[in-house]
Every structure is written in C-alpha cells, then in structure tokens.
Design brief:
mainly alpha; Rhopdopsin 7-helix transmembrane proteins; single chain; two-stranded antiparallel ribbon; two-stranded antiparallel sheet; 11 helices; disordered C terminus; 2 domains
Length: 323
C-alpha cells in the first residue's frame, strides 16, 4: 500500500501538481487571448456596455491574475514572501470562482423569469460562498520549501474544503434548476434535447460541475498536501471558462425594434401560425450582438409577442438559424 506521507511520494506528487498547473495555466492564457476580440468590441463601441459585463471581466481578470501569481510562486528561483503569495493565491481564484458562480446564477434566474424564490436561493448561496471565501483568505498560510524551491500551503484542507464543497453544492443545484427550467420549454422537446443544451451552454456547466467533484473528494481524503492541490487550479480554470463562454454565447442581448436594427445585424420576424393563416408580425425582436472581429453574423435570437423567449432552435428554418 502506498504511503502518501513518504517524502519521496510527496515530492513526486508535487512534481505532478506543478506540471498539471502549468498545463492549465497555459490553457487559460490561450483562452483569454483567443476571446479578446469579444472584449474589445465593447471598448470600441460595437456592443453596448451592460452591467453584467463587469462580472464577466472580473471573472476573466481575477483568474488571469491567479494564473500569473501561481506561475510566479512555482517558478521562483529564490525565496519569496509566501504568506503574501498565498493570500493572493486564495483571493484571485476564489473571486473568479465567485463571479463565475454569479454568472451561472443570473442565467438560472433568467430561465426561471427571476422568480423571487430563485433569486432568494441564489442570493443566500452566493453570500455563503463569500463568507467562506473571506474565512479561507484569513486562515490561509504557506511557507518556503527549500527542497521544492516553491511555496507550500499549510493545512490546505482546513482552508479550502468548506469553500470548495459549498461551491460544488451551489453550482450543482444551479445546474439542476437550469436543466429543469429548460426541459419545461417546448423548444427543447421540439428540436432535440442535446442540441438545445449545447446551444444553451449547459454542456460547459456539466463539465464545470464534474471538474469540482475530484477536488472535493481529494480534500476530503486528505492523502497529502500535494494531492490536495492537484485539481484546484483545473477546477478554477474550467469553471471560469464555462461561465464566460456561457456569457458570451447567451447573455449579451440587445432589445430593439426589428425596424431599427443596424444593417449589419440579422433580424428575423417570428411567424406565428393561427389556423390556416400566418401572422408575420412580431411585437419586438431580440437580436444577439453577433458582430465578431470578422464582422460576420454568427448567431441570432428573437422574441415572440409577450414575455416568453424564442431560442435559436426555433428559427433554424431561417437563413440565420444555424449557428
């Protein structure tokens, strides 16, 4: 049986952790750079600024700061102030995770038409996460390991397990509520569940929830300090990528009259059938901000008269229905 406290085993595990962290840090830097054109479209005025963009940017740049801080700590050639390093290493990733959870919560609330019960559940859950995050930052501690030439976290289970367990529980509940809300919509049954879920970004959320479980399990087992850290960075990065991809694909909408849409945005009037006649009027259209860096239309969405949204799948028969 493996003795996980053996110094040789711990050193080997730390080496595996460092390699995995570098892989995922590189993945996030690539993802961040790849999606910069979307961000610049707000700075250049191609898309209107909305308050939720502040959450999106906070999530992106908190995780980027966490990645940079992590790389500094793992690649330091001389001793650094590990206590300061570890405080930032808890602050930046957990702030990114919190805003990612908030983006998920906003989407879940929108699916349920901002029902008071849904808003209350999301609000209480996120406040609990915030309280646990502050606790983790306060008690986090680290010291310089002369053999590893890196900062090592002390008692990571005590600092991380409560918060990461709560994050997993909250995201799992939000994911379940989103699935239930989407299943209730007729367009999910009409156009196929998996295609619909793919368009709604829920596959990303499933990946995020699955990514959180291994971290919680390893922290609960507490095999050694190295393995406790193994999946924390992958979890942070996967959750941030999932939430920001969902935001880009679903949450940046412009409510306008169809007659006033810009020439370079696609407009589709929703045609309703009533007996043998067809009403080709729509009281309002909802147009996705579809200008990318290549100035091409990539996706659209429209609204039927009333309050219930029409999702992309319902206009697949139009020239712009396929995205």
């Amino acid at each position: 049986m493996v003795n996980y406290d053996d110094p040789a085993v711990v050193a080997s595990d730390y080496l595996a952790v460092i390699k995995l962290q570098h892989v995922f840090c590189g993945l996030y830097i690539w993802e961040w750079a790849r999606t910069l054109p979307y961000e610049f479209s707000f700075y250049t005025g191609k898309r209107p600024w909305r308050w939720t963009l502040a959450l999106y940017l906070t999530c992106r740049y908190s995780i980027l700061a966490a990645v940079i801080n992590l790389l500094v700590g793992f690649n330091a050639s001389q001793p650094i102030h590990c206590l300061v390093w570890v405080k930032f290493e808890f602050l930046f990733p957990y702030l990114g995770v919190l805003t990612a959870s908030l983006l998920i919560a906003l989407r879940a609330a929108a699916i349920w038409h901002f029902h008071p019960a849904m808003l209350t559940l999301a609000g209480v859950s996120l406040l609990a996460q915030l309280a646990l995050q502050i606790r983790s930052i306060v008690i986090a501690s680290a010291s310089w390991d002369s053999q590893m030439h890196a900062c090592t976290l002390k008692d990571g289970v005590h600092a991380s397990l409560p918060l990461l367990s709560a994050t997993f529980g909250v995201d799992a509940v939000l994911l379940l509520l989103m699935l239930i809300g989407l299943v209730r919509r007729r367009e999910a049954r009409k156009f196929g569940m998996w295609a619909f879920l793919m368009k709604q970004g829920l596959v990303w959320l499933i990946v995020a929830a699955v990514a959180e479980l291994p971290t919680v399990v390893l922290l609960a087992l507490n095999l050694n300090d190295a393995l406790n850290l193994l999946f924390q960075t992958p979890e942070m990065i996967i959750l941030a990528i999932a939430a920001t991809n969902m935001y880009r694909s679903l949450s940046d909408f412009l409510h306008v009259d169809g007659s006033n849409l810009p020439a370079n945005n696609a407009t589709v009037d929703f045609a309703r059938s009533s007996g043998s006649t067809r009403d080709h009027r729509a009281s309002r259209a909802l147009s996705m901000h579809t200008l990318n860096h290549d100035n091409k239309v990539h996706a659209i969405q429209v609204f039927r008269p009333g309050t219930d949204p029409i999702f992309e799948g319902e206009v697949e028969g139009t020239p712009y229905g396929k995205v």
